[in-house]
């Protein structure tokens, strides 16, 4: 088995370069199908393929790979199982899930025996060394615990996690410690200014639109970088679809 190819796949997957990974994988399947079949015996390689299928929203394929897999380290696949169900539900609803909805999703869709033989979830999906790596960085930068893109990539390599796991860990940790981003009040004010500018009454706004706006405002206090922008754009699109008003993206 060519371990170099598996490492390359992990590199692309961990940094969420899924378009590049998909093109590379398609070329591999076409040019060297036997090698691809051999690589499918590699647990790390399968992890990457499942991550790609989730990104492509091919949820049935992702579920099938997890349910039929035989893994030596099955617990790390639990996060993929949950992530696939989160994204599937978000696609149905049209907005990000709240913590409560994610909790309900985990209760409704317990991991299969292939990755959770005992039927009981572990207390945490992150390995201890990964948590310690992230915690050390957080404690060292306690005055401003917001890693930039290069620092996130370094943490991915050091922890062995994927990029989304690193982002989620920092977001959750900042939330627990009640840390908000500087200038968040300014951005919050801009959103509220747009909200009141159009004199939209609560009777006009649907529940989904209320949720989208509320989510965008909450995210301002949690994410000062691209995640915040993405949430505001998502809310902006939903509000534009309702022909109500436009949230300022700044």
From TrEMBL:
Stored InterPro entries: HD, Homeobox_CS, Homeodomain-like_sf, KN_HD, SIX1_SD
Domain Homeobox residue range list: 117-180
Keyword Ribosomal protein assigned: no
Gene3D superfamilies (UniProt xref): Homeodomain-like
The keyword Zinc is assigned to this record: no
Record key words, sorted: DNA-binding, Homeobox, Nucleus
Superkingdom of the source species: Eukaryota
Spans annotated as Disordered: 106-127
Endpoints of the signal sequence: none
GO CC list: nucleus; transcription regulator complex
Single GO biological process annotation from the record: regulation of skeletal muscle cell proliferation
DNA-binding region: 119-181
MF term (GO), any: RNA polymerase II cis-regulatory region sequence-specific DNA binding
Protein name: Homeobox domain-containing protein
Species assigned in the record: Octopus bimaculoides (California two-spotted octopus)
